Amino acid sequence: MADDEDEELRRQTEDKPKKKKKKKPKTDDSGAAEGGGDGEAPRKKKKKKKKPALDEEGGAAAADDDVDDGDKKPAAKKKKKKKKPVDQSDGQIEAHSDQVQQEQDNYYGGAAVAAVAAASTAGAYQQDSNGDDMGAERKKKEDEYNASYYDGNDGDVEMAMKNNGGGYDEAYCFEADTEIMAEIQQDNTVQVDESGGIQAFVAETIEIDGDDVGIIKSDAEIEAEEKRKYVKYFGAAVCCLVVVVVAVAVPLTLKFTKNVVNKTRYVSDPPTEPPSQMPSIMPSGQPTSTKFMEIVDFLMPLSGNSLKVQGSPQYKAAMWMESGDMMPNSRGGTGLSIDDAGFTQRYIMALFYYAMDGDNWVQKQGWLSEKSECEWFGIDGFSAGCGSDGIGGCIKRSDFEGDYNKVCRLSMGRLNNLFGEFPKEMGQLEEMRYVEIQDDWLIGTIPTELGRGWRKLHTFLIGGNVMHGGIPSSFANNEFLGTVFIDRNNFNGTWPNVFDTLKNLEWLDAEGNDFTGTLSPGIGELKSLRIFNINNNSISGNLPDTFDESNLMEDFEVAYNKFSSTLPESLGKAKFLKDLRASGNQISGGIPVSYYNLKNLEELYLDNNRMVGELPQTYEPFYDGLQELSVHSNMGMKGRFPVENFEKTLRVKVIELHNTEMTGQISENICGRLDPNLSYTRLKTITADCEKIKCSCCTCYKDGKIESTYP
């Protein structure tokens, strides 16, 4: 293919008309041009900038004297030079050199470029020899220089330029392909000098269609393009995943939120649908019946807007009364209407069921059934002044037309899993006598309405729950309330003086709360009070000292509070006192002498106080029934321990004397009562500082710590 192209180029060159060469004007020694006729100023020869010629020693050649510094012009835009007229062989050389130059640039890179550069240099010197006498001499010197640095064994052309110091400043090595050089020489289209260099020629520009030419990319560019593709694909995958998740999540969310109760949505007005034919115990949906609207209007003075809030206990109870109650009525149907006696009471008991999470009770027999509420679990049965055969836990009130049997008892027992707040509507049950809900999950506070409505209540047992607040003053002056258990709750605030007004109060258990403040003297004036227990609170001040012989006090328990007074002297007049517990306070002083006559005293706990003095040394009625004595951790207690007084009683079970200044000895008779084979008369615990009180069977303490135990 290359041969065909060469032949075509030769033909084109031969067809071109030959042009005469223009002779260069000769200059004389003064530089004036010869033959410059017509007075035309001779034009100076434009010389190309040449590389500095090397002399025979390899140094840089001196600049041409013919080139004047003043003739130098600033660099201008490079212009195409007119080709000099050449003969036929020169035209062939130029045409062929263009093709060779293009092929070598495309296929052989730097080697071909190096060869062409060498040929260009040789051609330049040949051109100078045609127009300048010094050209031949410079060419000869250059040829000799190149020959001295040319190594033909490997086809390498070395060009080196030495600096003024004699060393090589730069060295450029070009490798010319031997086969290419041979091929060029065989074509007889390129002149080769004696040293093997290619004569200078000008290559013709060849236009190439770049539509089908591909770009060769580097490895880094290919890797970057692959990364961009991966990022693009990963982003598309993430977008698809998000779309799928949203497409699945939105329908599920809409499905499960349809049944969520909107607690701010109210009953529509007016109603649009009749009640369902098959009512259920747990109504659902927004009620729209006329009957329901009548029930809501009727109960509004009692329950207020809670009736209109879906999901509230009042709303559920009203719905049950509207469509869930299956109790037969006097009209041959089921359920009570607002005109029936007992409608409000049945609504209140249904409300209690929903307010206390009745679906999860352990025992709930009969609740929300077709039976009368008087027969539901916890309401039925008998209590003092409440209930009778045939009507369960209700007061019979059917003596006149329009009356009904009224609930007077609510005993849900212990651990029945009630959870919720007391509905204030319960205060409408004015015949309530007995309420017991212990060890469950009552929360909130005691509604004031209960104190106002339950004026006949005599037993109120709500111990072991999580209620807080105080005791409403509405319970004050209740003439029937005799037993109150509010122990083990979270009641707080100052001690409620409402108890001082309960003249028939017999048993008050408020242990394990967070009451603060002080006790009023009115506690000692409650003549019927038998058991008073406020252990484990934060009550401070003085103990009441207003007791007398008419007091029926049996248990007076004020342990682990913050009392700082002495033991009340008047308490010794309470002849029925059996149990006195005042441990863990800051009580000072000694045991009052009046206590020596408490012949019914069985338990005396005065430990962990600041008491002083000694135990009575003479035999007193005080020792007759004493079973448990604890005076430890009172460093002011001293004197001899009257062991002989304890040997006379067969019922002693606890003797705790450690961390005191008491002395003496425990007899073997008392130690013998530790025998595990004994039952009623067995001594369970005896402690002492064994360095002060000699004892062979005691748990011995030293410096407030146990040193040894028995056995």
UniProtKB/TrEMBL annotation:
<dbReference type="InterPro" id="IPR001611">
    <property type="entry name" value="Leu-rich_rpt"/>
</dbReference>
<keyword id="KW-0472">Membrane</keyword>
<keyword id="KW-1133">Transmembrane helix</keyword>
<feature type="transmembrane region" description="Helical">
    <location>
        <begin position="233"/>
        <end position="254"/>
    </location>
</feature>
<dbReference type="InterPro" id="IPR051809">
    <property type="entry name" value="Plant_receptor-like_S/T_kinase"/>
</dbReference>
<protein>
    <submittedName>
        <fullName>Leucine-rich repeat domain-containing protein</fullName>
    </submittedName>
</protein>
<dbReference type="Pfam" id="PF00560">
    <property type="entry name" value="LRR_1"/>
</dbReference>
<feature type="region of interest" description="Disordered">
    <location>
        <begin position="123"/>
        <end position="153"/>
    </location>
</feature>
<dbReference type="InterPro" id="IPR032675">
    <property type="entry name" value="LRR_dom_sf"/>
</dbReference>
<feature type="compositionally biased region" description="Basic residues">
    <location>
        <begin position="75"/>
        <end position="84"/>
    </location>
</feature>
<feature type="compositionally biased region" description="Basic and acidic residues">
    <location>
        <begin position="8"/>
        <end position="17"/>
    </location>
</feature>
<keyword id="KW-0433">Leucine-rich repeat</keyword>
<feature type="region of interest" description="Disordered">
    <location>
        <begin position="1"/>
        <end position="106"/>
    </location>
</feature>
<feature type="compositionally biased region" description="Basic and acidic residues">
    <location>
        <begin position="135"/>
        <end position="144"/>
    </location>
</feature>
<keyword id="KW-0812">Transmembrane</keyword>
<keyword id="KW-0677">Repeat</keyword>
<feature type="compositionally biased region" description="Acidic residues">
    <location>
        <begin position="55"/>
        <end position="69"/>
    </location>
</feature>
<dbReference type="GO" id="GO:0016020">
    <property type="term" value="C:membrane"/>
</dbReference>
